[in-house]
Amino acid sequence: VGTKLINEFVAPIEKELATLGPDGKPMQDYLAAMRTYIGNMKGQSFGWVAPQGLIGQEAILQIVSVQRGNAPVLLETAHKMFDSQQALMGIFGGPAAQQEVKTSWTANAKTIDGVAFNQMQTTFAPPPGQRPTPQQMQAQQMMTWMYGPGGINAFVAAIGNDKLVTATGATDALLKELVAAAKTDQDLLSAAPPLKSTADQLPKERLAAWFVSIDQIATSAAAYAKAFGMPINFQVPQNLAPLGGTISTDGSAIRLDGYAPTQTLQSVIAAGMQTYMQMQGGQQPGGPGGL
C-alpha cells in the first residue's frame, strides 16, 4: 500500500523531471531509491532525544530510529539516497548555494556492541580561497548548534536481516542504547505510565502514533536559555503525560486524533507565566494587580 501511494504521488513529479534532462537525474535517482526504500520497509519507530550537554558541544538534533523490513536492501538504498544528496543540495540552494558541501560515506566507521555502523557525514565550508562572510559564519554557528561539531553526522547499521537502525547527532553512549533496544525489541516506552495514560485516550488501531514530552523540551530549552544569560528559572513537574496524536482510518477516510492532558497544559501555562514575569523583572502581567 505504501509503495502504491508513493508511486501515485511521485509519478507526476518524475514526468516533469524527465523533461529536464541531466539536471533532473539526481532527483530521479533519489525518488527511485526512495520508492525501493519504502517498498522494503514494514514500519518504523523513531524519537528525538532530549539533549543534555552544552550547546555547540552536543547536537540539539539527536534523532534515533529503528526500521523494520528487508534490512540489507534498506541499507543499500540508504547509501544510494545519500549519494544523491550533494547534487540535490546544489539544485535546491540553501546552505549549499553559498558554501562548499562535502558528503562522505564511511563503511564500518565504528562498531558498537558487535554492530558495525556506517557513517554518513555532510560538512559545509566557504568555497576554497574565500574568507567566510558574516552570513556564512552565522550559518556555520547555527549548524554547529543543531548538529554538533563536525557537521551532520549520521550512523546507520543493519541488525540481522529485519532491522535497520539510524542515529543523527548521537554519542557512542546513545548508539549503545539504540543497539540494545533494537536487539531486545521491547517497547519499554509505551509501558511507561505517563505515555500510557495518553495512549489510552487515543484509538487503539492506528497507522501511526506520536507523542511529545513537553516537560523534557521545556527543561532543555531553559538550560540553553540560561547558557545565553537569560534569567529563566521556571519549574515544570517531571514525568508529565505527553501530548499525543494518531493517524488511523475511518471507513474510506483518514482520521487524525489528538490528546492534550489537562495537567500538562496547566503546567506549561504556569511555566510560561513564570518566565514572562521573570523577563519583566518580577512584575505581574497587566501592571499592578495582574491581569
Summarize the model shown:
The chain is α+β, with helices and mostly antiparallel strands.
Structure description:
- The protein has 291 residues and is α+β, with helices and mostly antiparallel strands.
- Helices cover 44% and strands 25% of the residues.
- It is built from 11 helices and 9 strands.
- It has helices spanning 2-18, 25-39, 71-83, 85-92, 95-98, 134-147, 172-184, 188-191, 193-199, 214-227, 262-279, and strands at 41-48, 63-69, 100-112, 115-125, 152-159, 163-168, 208-212, 243-250, 253-259.
- The strands form 2 sheets. The chain has a 6-stranded antiparallel β-sheet. The chain has a 3-stranded antiparallel β-sheet with strand order 7-8-9, covered by helices on one side.
- A hairpin with a 3-residue loop joins β5 and β6 (163-168).
- α1 packs antiparallel against α2.
- The chain is globular and about 60 Å long.
- 16% of the residues are buried.
- End-to-end CA span: 54 Å
Please list the strands of the largest sheet in the order they lie side by side: 1-2-6-5-4-3
Radius of gyration: 22 Å
Mean pLDDT: 85
Strand content bin: 25-35%
Please work out how many helical segments DSSP would assign.
Answer: 11
Helix content: 40-55%
What shape does the CA trace take? globular
Oligomer: single chain
Low-pLDDT sequence parts: none
Question: Major β-sheet, in short?
Answer: 6 strands, antiparallel
Query: Helix- and strand-based class?
Result: alpha+beta
Count of DSSP strands: 9
Q: How would you spell out the order of helices and strands? A: HHEEHHHEEHEEHHHEHEEH
